[in-house]
Amino acid sequence: MIDKWNNAQVYELGYWKYIMENGIVCSNVTSDKIYEFQRKNMLETLLYSERPIEFWKDKIIIEFGSGPLGVCEFIDDKEKIAIEPLINEYRKIYNHLQESDVIYLDKCAEGPLNIPDGYADLVVSINMLDHVIDPLKVLNEINRICKTNGYFLFHVNVYLSESDINKKSGMHLDLHPHSFTKIKIFELLESYNLSVIKFYCCPEPNEQNEHHFICFGVKKKC
Ligand SMILES: C[S@@+](CC[C@H](N)C(=O)[O-])C[C@H]1O[C@@H](n2cnc3c(N)ncnc32)[C@H](O)[C@@H]1O
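That is the input. Now the predicted structure with S-adenosylmethionine docked in place:
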């Protein structure tokens, strides 16, 4: 798995380098507009929680696999921590990271993470669980770090069946070491005490036959 993950991380870094140089062509976003584009997307994603952005101001937010332009970069709150193994590489490409007030941990989210149990008011994981080495260890850390009755905001692209997963190929397969059906994601979240309050699964698949899935929920008492 580690070779597969390393390979995926090379592609991942290549992607972020490419868009900084060329923009996001399919969305008509030039490279000088990427920061604003991502800001809008990330804040919209956070608003899925049905809480205004100011709600998080006095809260501790921990973001898993933030990339260079995660939610943490765009909000003011008490403490912002992001766990991102490529952060030192992203710093070479994205200038805003030089002045960032986010505490980045240059680590994998599987742990061990030097963060106390029940530390976070909100754990964010956007488009990362299918990129990691061991999704179960990552979910275990989300559960451990999130306080009881704290919140989680979670996104991943899902498949509707195992047979759709088996059709995965090419670059898409290289970039994503793991794949999940929607049912599997519900089972996994539940088994790590992450109770879904609301979710949305886009009925239309993307070009890779995945469906955009987002949910917001609360960490139950273990
Ligand atoms: C597709 S990007 C998403 C970035 C960001 N969340 C976003 O939506 O823009 C996936 C990110 O997960 C990070 N990642 C991969 N494996 C990880 C792991 N084991 N622990 C933490 N982050 C990881 C990658 O370095 C990459 O930045």
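Residues 8 and 175 are 5 Å apart (CA to CA).
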